[in-house]
Amino acid sequence: MTRPLKYLALLGYVVFLAFPLLWLLSTALKTPQEMAVLDPTWIPRRPTLANFADAFAEQDLLGAGLRSLVVAVATALITVALALPAAYALARFRGVAGRIAIGWVLVSQVFPVVLIIIPLFMVLRRLELVNTLAGLTLVHVTFVLPFALWMLRGYVRAVPRELEEAAAVDGAGRLRALAAVVAPLLAPGVVATLLFSFISSWNEFMFALVILKDPEVETLPLTLVRFVGPEGVARLGPLAAASLLATVPSLVFFAIIQRRLRSGLMAGAVKG
Amino acid sequence: MTAVAAHGGAGGGPPRVFRSGNGLALLLPALVPVLLFSVGPLVYGILLAFTDARSGRNTETSFVGLENFAELLSDGDFWESFRIGMVWGLSVTVLQFLASLGLALLLNQDLRLRGVARVLAVVPWAMPPVVVGLMWRLVYHPDAGLLNGLFGSDVDWLHDFSLALPAVIVVGVWTGMPQTTVVLLAGLQNVPGELYEAVSVDGAGVWRRFWNVTLPQLRPVIVAITSLDFVWNINQFSLVYVLTQGGPGGRTRLPMLFAYEEAFRYGFFGYAATLGVAITIVVLVVLGLYLWRQAREGD
């Protein structure tokens, strides 16, 4: 392939990847009048931020955002608290039980979510946790845990065992060796896993749809879908504006962990 | 005197603390959450497939054996959903792979726009599926959308009986490209440079180099990521639910949308679980055949 052809191909990809994003931005900045004209334009003639204000006025975006935040933070903290000791054990002790556990983490990915959500829904109903943020958090932990475990295990394995043993030889107990030597080296991996768990929970839609029934407890993805009313055009601006806002936390966190996520995926995958 | 000095002694390999039986105690925190949060619900879910469980609070649940499976096999709606799921799953996986391979090959070269493309190539990964769905609804919108303006057409893309599925597949490819591209790119960067030098000495062209060096070297990575993509795609729910809710007339009703309706609209928990088990079996068979063929060809 010649160089110009390569550039043409790359340009094609950039256009394909970027145009829906730019259209979302463009829609968010348009007035309702401009949205109603045929032959929509790329660049709004009279850009406006009114859609953002309308979005907050039409739906309880702020409340939904706060609820999403609570669920996502709780999910991230609980997931990592559960997964960290587990990941350490799985990385350091390669017994049969450990191998079965990590094998299960992989196999469990094959099962469709209905097989998990129905039994969880029944359990939550018995515990009176349907329609509550606590219930949703519990489900999100279930859903994020396997991958968090996989990621953390990769990071633990990247910490040389010899360092830990050297500290133990120097007279530190296992716990002190962990705190003094392993913890600082593991910290970036733990942060990456926290952020990853946060994003997964913040973005999650299906479980929220099943568990949360009332507008008063809805998380952000559910509220966003509410903008799609039978009314059509009139609500497209606020819809686009709200969509953009809802994406910001995920994008920012993702930008931070992107590199680590990649290396974590690879470390886990290559070393198996 | 520390525990280490007492047990280990001089020069006897790693200190004994690290080999002693406290491993099992440490594994407990690993096994308990996995058992409680992952194995438990799944086993429960699979068992439900053999019952007539309903959503009502005080309904009696009884064991019905394979009755649900028999009903599933004679359910025309299920087969239609299954067919759509396979068309969706296979075409999105194949298109994702081809598009991502092309992009990864370009990103692996010294081209100017590379930085921009690299960033753009991961953005869909971070976006909430709901936002991706809503965004594409704006693109496909018959009046205020982009496509009709661009093509001068007057089509309601997501409500057209024959266009809805292809339109949704495009969104599936768009949203799944990042993971595939990132993994393939990492695979490309791990191909040893000497291999290319050896073939260029032989005077092989670009295509020969691609077929004889790149593809064989990438094979394990390709097999892994396409398998994962297929599993993810066949189990897709949120994206299509937001785009079409399975419409028009069930033309985009993927198996998971069908299962969701059965369980949470009509309340047939047992039947929906059966559907989940059936899809799992299909996925395992497809993956088994694929991996088996790849392993044989790889020899």
Automatic annotation (TrEMBL), chain A:
InterPro entries from the UniProt entry: BP-dep_ABC_trans_perm, MetI-like, MetI-like_sf
Principal location: membrane
Alphabetized SUPFAM superfamilies for the sequence: MetI-like (SSF161098)
Domain of life: Bacteria
Key words, A-Z: Cell membrane, Membrane, Transmembrane, Transmembrane helix, Transport
Domain (ABC transmembrane type-1): residue spans on this chain: 65-257
Membrane topology: Multi-pass membrane protein
Biological process terms in GO annotation: transmembrane transport
One Pfam family from the record: BPD_transp_1
Signal peptide: none
Family of this protein: Belongs to the binding-protein-dependent transport system permease family.
Protein name, entry field: Carbohydrate ABC transporter membrane protein 2, CUT1 family
TrEMBL record, chain B:
Domain ABC transmembrane type-1: 82-290
Gene3D superfamilies the record matches: MetI-like
Family note: Belongs to the binding-protein-dependent transport system permease family.
Cellular compartments annotated: Cell membrane
Residue stretches spanning the membrane: 24-50, 86-107, 119-138, 158-177, 263-292
GO process terms (BP): transmembrane transport
Record protein name field: Multiple sugar transport system permease protein
